[in-house]
Structure formats: structure tokens, C-alpha cells
Specification:
It contains seven helices and seven strands; from the N terminus they run H-E-H-E-H-E-E-H-E-H-E-H-E-H. It has a seven-stranded mixed β-sheet, sandwiched between helices. The N and C termini lie far apart (about 40 Å).
Length: about 200
């Protein structure tokens, strides 16, 4: 099997170019679709730490609206997406439950920004997630994950409900769909690049 270095040089980076790794968090509340999102878009077999939920977890985690959920992320999800011959995104999906907040703190170190997945029918569940990302000082974009049968939310009302700044990007996506997920990530990366240029 080829080494990671040789794969990087031959498959992803043109001769003489330097590969730039970019760490991105994929965050959101419990059962919003983070594992699905990374699984749909990762160019490598994603690392997933999903475990079957126990009866003890059912007493702790709010399963309202997601009764069919039988597994949950207990550490992180990880995937990779090459977006150019120089830039590679390393995607880290965080657990959605408050009891895993220490994991969030560790994963946030070195991250350039975050994509916040939101369920349009459970907007209030996103408040703590957005608060945490802002505490870590990360720029972020909102990706409204449209589940089957989810209502279409007016963007102005959604921004008001989530108390977003005017320049915070808001996009819709289907976490199961590769192209839709890629478009959401592209929106985040462009926003991060614009912010970086403004700060120079």
C-alpha cells in the first residue's frame, strides 16, 4: 500500500506545489445529520464512532422527533475532501450531546471554521451549538438540513430565530446528497477566505 505522503504528492498535489490542510468542524445538535453529511461527502472511507444507543442513553438524550434513531456518535466523525490540487479539507464531526462538550473543545483546536447543521423543525436545539462555536471564536456558516417533509423556512425568519449576524452565510442542503453537501461546504470555505482577506 502506498504511503500517505506518496498518495498526497501523486494524487492530490501538482509537482512543486504544497498541499494545504484545512481543518473544518461539522457541528450541530443531536440527530441533525452530521455523520450522514460526512459519510456522503468524504473521498475516503469516513471514520465513524457511532455506537448503538442504550436504554440509559434514552433517559439522557431527547429523542423527540427522532424516535427511529438507534445509534449516536460518541467521539467524532472524520472525513476528507480535496477541493483543489492544493487545498484539502479535513472534516471533524462533533457529538451532538451536551455531555460531550469536552470533545468539542479538543476538536476545535486548530479549526479554521465550522459548518453548523440545523434541523428547521428543531431550531431551538441549535442555540447551545452556536453559542459554543462563538465561544471558541470560530467563523461559521449555517446549513439547514432539509429532511423529508421538512417545512421550507423563510431565511429572514430563520436568521432572526437563530440571532445571526447579517454576514453569516445560510444555505440549505440534504446531508444525504454529495453535491448538496459539497455546495454547503463551498459556501463556508468562500466565507472563510473572504474573512481572511478582510483581516489582512
Amino acid at each position: 500500500m502506498a504511503s500517505a505522503a506518496s498518495l498526497g504528492e501523486q494524487a492530490y498535489v501538482r509537482d512543486g506545489a504544497t498541499q494545504i490542510p484545512v481543518k473544518i468542524l461539522v457541528v450541530g445538535h443531536f440527530a441533525v445529520g452530521k455523520t450522514t453529511f460526512i459519510g456522503a461527502i468524504s473521498e475516503i472511507e469516513p471514520l465513524s464512532t457511532e455506537e448503538r444507543m442504550t436504554r440509559a442513553a434514552e433517559r439522557v438524550d431527547d429523542l423527540k422527533g427522532v424516535r427511529s434513531k438507534t445509534t449516536t456518535t460518541v467521539a467524532m466523525d472524520f472525513g476528507r475532501l480535496t477541493i483543489s490540487d492544493r487545498v484539502v479539507l479535513y472534516l471533524f464531526g462533533t457529538p451532538g450531546q451536551q455531555r460531550f462538550v469536552q470533545v468539542w473543545e479538543d476538536l476545535a483546536r486548530g479549526a479554521l471554521g465550522a459548518l453548523v447543521l440545523v434541523d428547521p423543525e428543531r431550531l431551538a436545539d441549535s442555540f447551545e451549538v452556536i453559542d459554543l462555536i462563538e465561544q471558541y471564536g470560530l467563523d461559521y456558516a449555517i446549513a439547514v438540513n432539509n429532511f423529508d417533509g421538512s417545512p421550507v423556512r423563510d431565511e429572514t425568519a430563520l436568521r432572526e430565530a437563530l440571532d445571526l449576524l447579517d454576514d453569516t452565510p445560510v444555505v440549505t442542503c440534504d446531508a444525504r446528497d454529495e453535491a448538496s453537501s459539497a455546495a454547503a461546504l463551498t459556501t463556508l470555505v468562500r466565507f472563510l477566505l473572504d474573512r481572511a482577506q478582510q483581516e489582512q
